């Protein structure tokens, strides 16, 4: 159970809620709830005493100079989420939607947004019953926050629009009636508090981080498999060699490869001095991810645990502070960075696949790693098309690495004249991850085929390999058998992607403990 009480949360907390590994609850602690109530009570008192509060008695954004008649103030939050109901594109997946809900609740629980406990309880109910707003992916520029996508959360809290519930798309009002949930009526400032923040980009960033972290380890294991399949030089990963280039990430990757490949003392006269860069320099490519991840965690978790709407409500000091904490620049930067290093991983794996299928470079394996024998080898083409597909996925991933954050557009009558594009960067990064995981699925099939061909040619035995390599090889063979006659491989590639995304293999736990 993850308890929301304003204390710091981790990326893993959000991912666990998103994947339903842990439930979420709002803290019952009376002191926490009192601290939340102070904000909305201060706003209500100030409204009576002063009569002028941005987004409560005024219009929004460039319309802040428009005074709202007293008898219409209560309707303003509804209008905010209503006119922002213009999202387009695909809807966020259920895990991503849970991540968004959890991320928004984390921010509001900081106690600086002027919301009621009842609003937080309603958000907690959505998570508890897995009532998921249908949130369109497109429409946020990432400053003034994720206004349009988060309007779908606000509307659902109030019993409007559509949700995904128990495997079906349904009207929110019908689901609320079935579960005896009362629709919320937003108080002054609560529309802004829900919508005027970075919850969509940050929730997606948590999912990106977790998948990138696993992909880095998987690419390390794939490099070991490719080295074995091509009779590569395991001593490219020598400990003494890596002591002189002290990036922690590349040292960690090299250590994992030494473990996988039983690499001891390097021979004085190896059969082949140097492998091609996609093998020899793999720690230097993968290590960039490993050295980026700690920095990425810091930026993502800082954003996750921030109050990021506007204005900020200081109930203790009785101040209303106008600023720009909805600006998603840090998330934009880290998403643009991670999509670059992830796409470089796709490129690395694509080059390794190319080496393994090419008789000029695979050191004695058949063309395209076909397992066909005799005259049937003439009509079988093995992994020829898989290599083409992997290159196509890689090219598309690389194409998407142009930073989204450089495409700031002036919007909303030039009030939002410099924006982060953080949500677009996060969506791009998720697409790059999907494409790279597809390349990794191809690399798994190709490298296991190459390894099995070595075994069938009596150049290796399974027992010679590390227990971790043996276990992974057997697991992959349960999904995809040896390719002797050509067959369609799309379903097997899809099953491999599914296994990757479910993190089916435990990879280098001792490296995490080090």
Can you tell me about this structure?
With 514 residues, this protein is mainly alpha-helical. The protein has two domains: 2-197, Orthogonal Bundle (Fumarase C, Chain B, domain 1), CATH 1.10.275; 205-308 and 322-506, Fumarase/aspartase (Central domain) (Fumarase C, Chain A, domain 2, Up-down Bundle). Helix content is 54%, strand content 6%. It is built from 19 helices and nine strands. The strands form four sheets. It has a three-stranded antiparallel beta sheet with strand order 4-6-7. Strands 1-2 form a two-stranded parallel sheet. A two-stranded antiparallel sheet has the order 3-5. Strand 1, helix 1 and strand 2 form a beta-alpha-beta unit. Helix 1 (11-18) crosses helix 4 and helix 9 runs parallel beside helix 14. The protein is elongated. The model has no long low-confidence stretch (mean pLDDT 93).
Tally of discrete structural domains: 2
What structural class should be given to the helix and strand makeup? mainly alpha
CATH class of the largest domain: Mainly Alpha
What is the total tally of β strands? Answer: 9
Q: Please state the CA-atom Rg, rounded to the nearest Å.
A: 27 Å
Query: What would the principal axes of the Cα set say about the shape?
Result: elongated
Fourth-tier CATH superfamily name of the largest domain: Fumarase/aspartase (Central domain)
Mean pLDDT, as a whole number? 93
User: Helicity range of the residues?
Assistant: 40-55%
The CA-CA distance between the termini, in Å, is 28 Å
Order of strands in the sheet with most strands: 4-6-7
Q: Helices and strands, in N-to-C order?
A: EHEHHEHHEEHEEHHHHHHHEEHHHHHH
In percent, how much strand structure appears in the residues? 5-15%
> Would you give the CATH topology of the largest domain?
Fumarase C, Chain A, domain 2
Main sheet attributes: strand count, strand direction, barrel closure: 3 strands, antiparallel
CATH architecture of the largest domain: Up-down Bundle
Model regions low in confidence, pLDDT < 50 over at least 5 residues: none
User: Count the helices. How many?
Assistant: 19
